[in-house]
Amino acid sequence: MRKAERLNDIVHHLRRMHQAVTAHTLAESFEVSLRTIYRDIQDLVDSGVPILGEAGVGYVIDKKYHLPPIMFDADELEAIALGIGMVSNWTDEKFAEKAQSAYRKIQATLPAQLINELHQISTFSAPSHYKIPWEVNFTEVRECIRRKHVVSFTYLDLNDRQTERVIRPLALISFSPIWLLAGWCELRGAFRNFRLDRITEFSQLNTRYKDEKDKSLSTYLKLVNKDQYAASSR
């Protein structure tokens, strides 16, 4: 669960309770550490959410408090619509369905004025003949990243050399029309990028990896931002 979602859910959880809820109970409910709960509560208080209590005693929230409705301006809606169009055209059918479902939920909450703005959007993402097909299951790759499953596959590099790889998948990155799978490669002992269209025999292994600083997505991104990492796998 992402932090923003967890903060939102903590507020709803506290509003449902008729007595103080301990940090330990919250930690068990959201499957995070006590330290994470303490930080989350402090972040909510700092943002103006009326939570009372303290560590070791429990927390309560003013039942009159309601989360403010999410509101978008016209440009934000256009950006969202464009992003959903790009997801629909450049990922797979299952992910496209999720994007369209999210868009319908957003539309259902909009006032009439903003619904009218949607009808005037003039920025679109159209299907492209330049899309490079891949054999792997895009949704399966996403799930492996989310659930931290080690994966194996056969990879054909740009010099047409074939190797067997075992990696910790960290992210999917679009360099239209190419998709890259970024991960920690056990063969090279380093971060590598792999083109989806050059991956075959993709398999999810039973092993799940734990976050390690030197092999994490945040470290990978730091290397990318410093231009210390090549854009394609070697």
Explain this structure:
By secondary structure, the chain is of the alpha+beta class. The chain is built from eight helices and seven strands. The chain has a five-stranded antiparallel beta sheet with strand order 6-5-4-3-7, with helices on one face. Strands 1-2 form a two-stranded antiparallel ribbon. α4 packs antiparallel against α5. The protein is flat.
Give short descriptive properties of this protein.
5-stranded antiparallel β-sheet, 234 residues, flat, alpha+beta, 8 helices
Shape: flat
Q: Please report which band the strand proportion falls in: under 5%, 5-15%, 15-25%, 25-35%, 35-45% or over 45%.
A: 15-25%
In what order do the strands lie side by side in the largest sheet? 6-5-4-3-7
Q: Which value, in Å, is the CA radius of gyration?
A: 22 Å
Instruction: Count up the helices.
Output: 8
Mean pLDDT: 88
Helix content: 40-55%
The helix-strand sequence is HHHEEHHHHEEEEEH
Helix and strand composition category: alpha+beta
Give me the count of strands.
7
